[in-house]
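Q: Structure tokens for this one, please.
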Amino acid sequence: MTPLTLHRREYLLAGGGSTRRLATAVRAGTLVRVRSGVYADGAAWEAAAPEARIVARSRALALTSALPPVVSHESAAAAHGLGLFRPDEARVHIIAPVERPGAASAVVRHRGDLPDDEVVEVGGLRVTSLARTVADVARTATFEQAVVIADAALRAQFVPGPGVYDADGAEEFRQTVFGIVRRSAHGQSRAKRVLAFADGRAQLPGESVSRVRLRQLGFRSPELQTPIPGPGMTMYYVDFGLEDAQAWGEFDGAIKYIGGRIVDGRSGAQIFDDEKRREDWIRGTTQRPFARWGWPHIGTTIDLGNRLAAFGIVAPR
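A: Here is the predicted structure, written as tokens:
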């Protein structure tokens, strides 16, 4: 994730600008007002990932705060480099002591005290540690949002390479996170469900959401990143082995809606070279159907069920 460059108002004015020119640039979209007195390039802002914009808002808050805040929850997850699902891009989550006064616009203030070992510095920001971040999100976010972040945290630490997963390390991390969760009176059951479901072998937010939808459809826990021998010394890895339907499935983030139509973001030649031969090999050698889906198909359980049915794959009753 490439960080956005932030510009202080006084710097822009010192470079020959004026208050009127800044206002005109903001109206024209060439500048974006990230926070009072802090701006970013408009084109860069539009092109940035949601996570990068969230981190930029967190940095802007730190730049304009008398005391550096401790960024938390999904804002901290973005700072840690974790992918998010349906994030709140407009507000920054922080944790502040109960006795610390004041409130700031576009800030979600969570009251509480943080042990020193649950605060780290990432990219110049003070943020909650990875374990504390996962614990806070697991207690408070939707199931899908929390699973995306928990999966990503496990993947970052315990998936050193293709087909490798440190299950013991992942379980130890879960126990650490739940130890933090138990200190709160709220959200323990919710967090326990998230942590039990989390799996670092899901490689993308879309794969994490797909796992949730597959479970809702009635599939038992699919095999993740299943290895399938390819031609020669090649090893293919398939996102989902749907054993109870004797089928394969993959999430493809390049499939999206543009202008109301489902399109694939790659060129036709890339699709053929990178995917078709691979899929034909897998189908031919395993004699199983192979379904591919993207963001348009995981908005609801029904959406994914219809997509799978189009490939002759039906969830067990």
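A few notes: The radius of gyration is 22 Å. Residues 205-309 form one domain.
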